[in-house]
Amino acid sequence: MEVGERKERFLKQRQVLIFFVFLGITQAGSEPRHYSVAEETESGSFVANLLKDLGLEIDDLAARAPRVISKGKKMRLHFDRQTGDLLLNEKLDREELCGPIEPCVLPFQMLLENPLQFFQAEIRIRDINDHSPVFLDKEIVLKISESITPGTTFLIERAQDLDVGSNSLQSYTVSPNSHFHLKLQESPSGTVLPQLVLNKALDREEQPEIRLILTALDGGTPPRSGTTIVRIEVLDINDNAPEFAKLLYEVQVLENSPIGYQVAIVTARDLDTGAYGEISYVFSQASEDIRKTFRINEKSGELLLTQELDFESIQNYTLNIQATDGGGLSGSCVVFVQVMDLNDNPPELTMSTLINEIPENLQETIIAVFSVSDPDSGDNGRMVCSIQDDLPFILKPSVENFYTLVTNRALDRETRSEYNITITVTDMGTPRLKTQHSITVLVSDVNDNAPAFTQASYTLRVRENNSPALHIGTVSATDTDAGANAQVTYSLLPPADPHVPLASLVSINADNGHLFALRSLDYEALRAFEFRVGAADRGSPPLSSQALVRVLVEDDNDNAPFVLYPLQNTSAPCTELLPRAAEPGYLVTKVVAVDGDAGQNAWLSYQLLKATEPGLFGVWAHNGEVRTARPLSERDAARHRLLVLVKDNGQPPLSASVTLHVLLVDGFSQPHLPPPEAEAEAAAAAPADALTVYLVVALASVSSLFLFSVLVFVAVRLCGRGGAARAGRCSVPEGPFPGHLVDVSGTGTLSHSYQYEVCLTGGSGTLKFLKPIIPNFLAQGVERGSEANSSFRNSFEFS
Predict the structure, then answer these.
(1) What SUPFAM superfamilies does this protein's entry cite (predicted)?
(2) How far, in Å, CA of 539 to CA of 485, rounded?
(3) pTM for this predicted structure
(4) d(Cα 492, Cα 395) in Å, to the nearest integer?
């Protein structure tokens, strides 16, 4: 009942109980293979080739990793993985290993991996005749009364021979004499016992002492021998031999009993009196172990311990005790001492195979192969083996108290790189004894994790006009592996757009992920670009990942405003006509300018810096329109020169200036502003439209004398200023405007480069004050530019 409760308790601790059950892993052999070798064979000697028995070829040895495992800490055998031979690791002494037990067999196991297999085998150690017979007593004393009749036998202490079989003790001889001959008797255990047989009566007065040489011979080739002296003392007549109260004494003694402990008391009595009735007790046929362990009081028969008993070494002793009286007669009894076991030996764990480092991600990997043993008996020798519950390892029983420690799932080094495993072996005795063995298992890294960027995408900002080799940002990736598997190398990946010159724009430091701009960037040419970077580790095979990098070029105020109208690089400046009847706020012209920058760097403002007549004109700050500030008078000069400043909103601000020429004209209160559609039609039909205009002017001159007079008056005045009239022709730029000048909506300039030109052409009868022209300088090409300019000039000529 108690044992059952103990089992219940230990099942919760993942423990495996051993009840001398032989369990095997896959294909473990049930019948052991047998091999033999002679004792004292030199170390390294060949025992057998195991390839056939294991079912392997030489090419399979490396993969299956066979090795020898056996009980105990000594590895007496060695397996050669190159040849498949089983070799000796040391000289084997049969007598040391097995003592008198025959046959002397050492069991061992062959362990194969991939898959795991156990093969049971045993090697028999053959005895050689390396020990001579030895008498424990150099001299044997026999006291024989002269009254003993011929034919009486006397038992003599036998010799000891550690060899077995035919090499053990086989016979005895005695030196030639006239009184005794030798008789050999076989005991129930098979031991040959020497006996002296009296041939003729002894005469103490004739020969009080006889000395004989007893020789013991073994059966080896050549035979070995040992001798002792048998000294016979002839005594007077003694007609009663001592008799023991019991012929067999049975006692039980606990092991580890103290020295001097009384095992038993034997008693014998002799009916004789005097010296013939005095009894002395001695051991008879006692082995060396008995003589070292026990002693007997010659007078009292008290049997005492001279050294501690050890159940694990010897479980029982049989002692022959002889009681001899003063006349040489003797009697004998047997004392059977049974040693009682105590739980005084903790379990022993012997590690046969241990792998301290294993790679991660492997299934059911063997970590260790070990055996457990307890020399105690019964419950004292039953054992329970366990490890901690919170580990990814399990214990699997194999054969003859062998266990394998294996992983029960794949290990992940990134989760845990080291395990401390404590194997606990506990016996079932009282009190319970246990043994613990700790091992450390390191999980080696496998390249199973690709580098991971800290961000899936990076946005970097760099201001234009940067210095070359400027550090613009850093990408970072980490790898949870270790060693070379965690060393990350960065690189630029080929761009998806082959037109992006990535190699000339940026570079990356392969070691730390620093990004550098290789050249100065221009916001107006390239406002943004993106590319992918790769991070690869140095594992085998290498793993990699990617991240997107977007570079935004930030604008710098590096472009001054550019004036589209009026252009200042022509030979003849453009003159704007202003009727003297114009009201305040009259639109004289508009300054059109653009800025190649962006954002507030492209916000333009206009300012009138200088004027011929201060206070007459004003410039709107946000759209560049030049308007009259007050009514005109006759006192105002006919020609005016205005200096307009165009400034952006950058830091620091950049600016440009333009000079405007304004000519005051009498007689028109409202200027003629033809719509843009009419101008387009006039440009398409050049000569025909001119004729139509002439006819309309002629009809208007005839029908209105007043109007004709005014025209003549104006023409006369203009002709009087011939140079001025010729200078009044509007100058229009040839060819298209630069392509990088773009209109920026919201800056106050006219949309689509909307311009006004007023020109007076001398020598013609047509006067046009204000005419809108709408060339799209960005959309038109070189071919259309010259045609547009020609139409532009023709539209301002007098007919």
Answers:
(1) Cadherin-like
(2) 4
(3) 0.55
(4) 51
